[in-house]
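Supplementary Note 3. Input sequence used for the single-chain structure prediction.
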Amino acid sequence: MKVLIMSDSHGLTHEISMITDRHKEEVATMIHCGDSELESKDPLMKGFLAVRGNCDYDATYPDDAVEDIGGKRFFLTHGHLYNIKMTLMNLSYKSEEIGADIICFGHSHTAGSELIDGKLFINPGSIRQPRGRKEKTYAILDIGSDQLEIIYYDLEGKIVEELSRVYRID
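The predicted structure, written as discrete structure tokens, is reproduced below.
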């Protein structure tokens, strides 16, 4: 099962549409980790599990969400409420509390993933203002029976090899 994850699009519309159109046939779920700066009822957000970022003013978005997808428990948040620019510890505590297997967040605009104590932390980066690298990124997570594969893409749909990873799971 594949899950598209993006964050920090900050008002972009054409790019969200392009990414959605490119992958809509291959993914079962789409996640936006906040700072879309679009209303929740905007047609572009249809089909997304989305949370509220610090630049989102639509209060109908939840701050956090917990979803069961592909046999895994996902915790979705933007990250600003957990001080993720300084540490993942607060996010780790919250994920432990709710029994999350996969934690998706944004806010820092820094793409990357890390397996910590059996939990996969994913930041898809930003499709508007990346930090730490030149590519504007989003990610697709492929949930397998014994592995999690995270593939990062740039806006043109080219795989960003150095960010993409396969994690073995039990």
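Helices lie at 14-23, 89-98. The radius of gyration is 14 Å.
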